[in-house]
Design a protein that fits this description.
metal ion binding; 3 domains; Rossmann fold; four-stranded parallel beta sheet; binds iron/sulfur cluster; glycolate dehydrogenase activity; 11 strands; 24 helices; alpha/beta; electron transport; Fumarate Reductase Iron-sulfur Protein, Chain B, domain 2
Length: 438
Amino acid sequence: MSELNKLSKSLKEIENQLTDCMKCGMCQAVCPVFKQTGNEGDVARGKIFLLERLAEEMLTDAKGAKTRIEKCLMCGTCAANCPSGVKILEIFLKARAALTEYIGLSPVKRLIFRGMLKHPERMDALVDTAARFQNLGTSKADPNQGTRCSKLLSGVIGNRHFLPLAKTPFHKTYPSLNIPAGHSGLKVAFFPGCVTDKMNPEIGKAVLKVFKHHGVGVFMPKGQACCGIPALASGERNTFDTLLAHNAALFAEESFDYLITPCATCTATIKEIWPMMSEKDSIEKFRAGQWAPKTMDISQFLVDVLQVAPAQKSYAGSHSIEFAGDTVTYHDPCHLAKSLKIKSQPRDLIRANAACTFVEMAEADTCCGNGGSFNLQNYDLSKQIGMEKRQNILASGAGTVATACPACMMQIRDVLSQNHDGVKVKHVIEIYADTIKD
Ligand code: SF4
Ligand code: SF4
């Protein structure tokens, strides 16, 4: 099919899905971006108005249309509250892909996606090198959070406070695993995800500790690549297709009962976006369709499948060391709470640690403001949204804020670090793993 035919087919598909929108405006009341900007163009309804004349916009101001479509966290709050069930995220992803196909990638994104992300080995080597030299040009930001910042790079990264890259990424400690099922009788495929691998290997280690404790076999193929969502969110289908094909071939090498990740974004991507956006009639579409029902976030797997439940035992009987006497609150990642409706399981996992006390924060399921590329392109707005999350965390009185997405952890750590708040930022699996003796 010619490029022009492909483009007009994509536009037609988008157009057909737009007719479901009845312009009721319910999405306006819940959109975290609109709450800050008050701009109708930032809401799903405003973007749908724009997409209704997308073909025309492409001829007159394609770059402007792309900027407006991309000013969105892809949090799915609008879709979760839409009475007509408009497939908003699917429409936005397709529109971003169509616009990028028409305009082309910027040189910077071409370098990041096609030059780096698309090639997992090259990406790992670059991150290794960056980890070795990362202290040059950066300085300590906040000892509570262990963050760094960089005046030298402020033109590129703003005044972000970020966790340094791990000295030893997860894949260096565990390049691959193929452990048979233990007493649970189950074997899972494990997809740690990029942020766990490169910044938070302790999350991956906690998952493996928990699998071992529950007698769960693990298949973790060597050379896993990114799930592809950063590329797709920028409209870069080419890199997304390559990464999907790469990962799908790796996971097809072994049979497993469930595919588990500790990252809400990876879970939603593998479960919903891989089958939705893979090429029609391709082997990837077939495999992704087969894996979708058995793809789970780690907390859903532990609670729904392995029946981990809130602890009944007293504090004195608990093994937990790190969280003994702590108060823990929970932030719902959008990709878990809104996309997959997983809300109770991560809370149950925290409650399974009898040594700490769970407290609910206000607006726990409001977006933290990260949004992946949104944070990179709209940092001030992203931070404004994150500061509201910070207020709710502090108001809860918790000593630890837990979540189930390493990307949310980055955003929450940044806003807490900016204010030198002493609240710890943890993944729920770390809180549960702390109840298990090594
Ligand atoms: S809530 Fe749904 S139907 Fe209503 S305006 Fe928004 S997208 Fe359209
Ligand atoms: S996905 Fe989130 S940020 Fe984007 S329009 Fe919907 S509610 Fe607003």
